[in-house]
């Protein structure tokens, strides 16, 4: 039996295809995909359906493992491929309701958006179908064949990014864990007063007393697992400008505060 050493296995990994024809996709008209010296693909299509279909195919060819990781995080199924270490993270995703949010997001899509998403899906799934024996290294190293993508999977990325952008999750846990150990005055000094929201449906006294009654101890390992695994200790952003962009005009690049997810 031929030995396959890690170095050879890595060298044999399949790089995205840069030249040739994409067959199997029901393009309505010709689609041209070019890649610049930085490896950035550009798609030229005559209609939206072909554009989104090609985009799905290119995304899958460049980012299939990242896409698989995101949809599994959102569906609470990471431990199926990564082991028991990720059980608490899967528990967290299900406690947070990510799978249900994905399903509800699909039902809320407009007809136009749904049509675009389905074209995008067909591109992803065509790549998966035609590359079962040429999958990225990560899939082959664990013997995983990715399942066809669904609309729920497409919305998963939106759900995960939305979670990355929220900020008060740990504050809520802090509020719950301190409510029995502090007096009302101490708690008010630590936790911003709810009266600032002027919400008559959430009286300040009731808010404090409700927190005193909550018990989330058994959920804390799952609740903390998101920050433990992703190590989101602090956040920052940036905004920068380059001169001499296309047409001789400057380009503005604005970072949307997302964490590293590759």
Structure explained in plain terms:
- The protein is mostly helical and 262 residues long.
- The chain has two domains: 21-165, Penicillin Amidohydrolase, domain 1, CATH 1.10.439.10; 169-231, no CATH class.
- The protein has helices at 6-11, 48-75, 79-82, 87-95, 98-107, 111-130, 137-142, 151-165, 169-178, 184-190, 204-213, 220-230; strands at 32-35, 41-44, 239-242, 251-254.
- It has a two-stranded antiparallel ribbon. Strands 3-4 form a two-stranded antiparallel ribbon.
- Helix 4 (87-95) crosses helix 12.
- The longest helix is centred in the first third of the chain and has 28 residues, at 48-75.
- The protein is globular and about 70 Å long.
- The two termini are 35 Å apart.
The major beta sheet can be summarized as: 2 strands, antiparallel
Count of the domains: 2
The first-level CATH class of the largest domain is given as Mainly Alpha
CA-based shape: globular
Helix and strand composition category = mainly alpha
Tally the helices. 12
Calculate the terminal CA-CA distance, rounded to whole Å.
Answer: 35 Å
Strand content: 5-15%
Q: Which parts are unreliable, with pLDDT below 50 for 5 consecutive residues or more?
A: 1-12
- The CATH architecture of the largest domain comes to Orthogonal Bundle
Q: Average pLDDT across residues?
A: 79
